[in-house]
Amino acid sequence: MRKPAQEQKIVLSPALEAARPPEKVSWDYTPGDRFTAWKVRWGIGRMNCRVRPGLYALGSPSKGSPVFATANYRLSFDALRRALTGTDAWLLVLDTKGINVWCAAGKGTFGTLELARSIQDSGLEKFVTHREIILPQLGAPGVSAHRAAAYTGFRVIYGPVRADDLPEFLRLGKKASPEMRKVRFGLYDRLVLAPMQLVYYGKYLLPAAALLLLLGFRIDALFTLAALLTGAVLVPVLLPWLPGRSFALKSAVAGLAVSAAVCLLLGLPPYSAAARILIYTAAASFIGLDFTGASTYTSLSGVRKEMRLATPAQAAGLLAGLAMLLAGRFL
Amino acid sequence: MSMKYLRGVSTLRLDADKCTGCGMCLNVCPHAVIRLEGRKAAVNDADLCMECGACAENCPAGALTVKKGVGCAQAVRIGFLTGTEPQCGCGDDSCC
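YS: structure for the whole thing
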């Protein structure tokens, strides 16, 4: 029998590995960057576009240049780089496992300890004479400014929510206006998130629709696609105009309208139409409810509350519709 | 668009006695839930609160508390099925 190997691999501590000189980066936003952003929005190679954590020199920063912290998600890093066009600065990229600032702050990877570790490991204090670091405001759920200051000696200043507002923030003497402090959820913000919903549910529902088509249920294949598009695209687009505050209700209304329209279009008899409306309204409601995760204003307590009611209602709608279709076959 | 979610569900609590009026919570709240009245923080409208936890995390006086969490149905479902707290992201297929 072979003896277990004696030699052990020497692992450098993360601190030693990180002690490399800051990499230089530019403000340029290339077609390649644009293509990467597009791919990320569609969920292609999403987790392979991490930025290496550590300190970066944007332009030609000096010892007095401002320091900005960000996540190692490619879109976060690029948004910061672009927003600072013309400003020489230090960028401190935290290891958030390729997750954006806000979500990482929620998980705690964009957090006080990771910030303190990055400041120390990068040797930031050797590169600047001041002791200030500007964080994106949306990093605040994970970072305790007063504790970070106590650990590192760096004063944490919260910048604006959006990187685009950074030039104005700097012009105002590192002050954010109340408007800069507010998160938005406009049509564009909702639209860029729709592809991820579409890809996530498309993974299951496109094969399901194909199967239904092969089995000869052409009508149901069409309804399945309609429910997918309703929950993943129509709900995000129409969100402010759909009635109620509950996402499940908003999505059910959209699902009801779309499936009723499809029934009319196909001229389905009332019994079969009612069954389809039940099933696909429930499906659209289920998919649309998941948009709570992409939204910028839903709370855990609220989602829990609406799910306690919505989940049984969705299940009941689905089962009732299926039972009706099944019964219809034998009657 | 209106950013109000369900009524009366937020777990945000403010202990005005502890508040020192530093205004840090106003800096970090993404929905302007809190205002400064004289030298004390006051809640504008708790229905605007999304329980992100930024105010509590950054309150040096410990005057604010909130049960922090993600307002995501998928996370709640996964948490329910696995018996853990709702968390978003489950490895490489992470949503955000």
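YS: worth flagging: The two ends of chain B are 22 Å apart (CA to CA).
IM: good catch. Also Strands of chain B lie at 13-14, 34-37, 40-43, 64-65.
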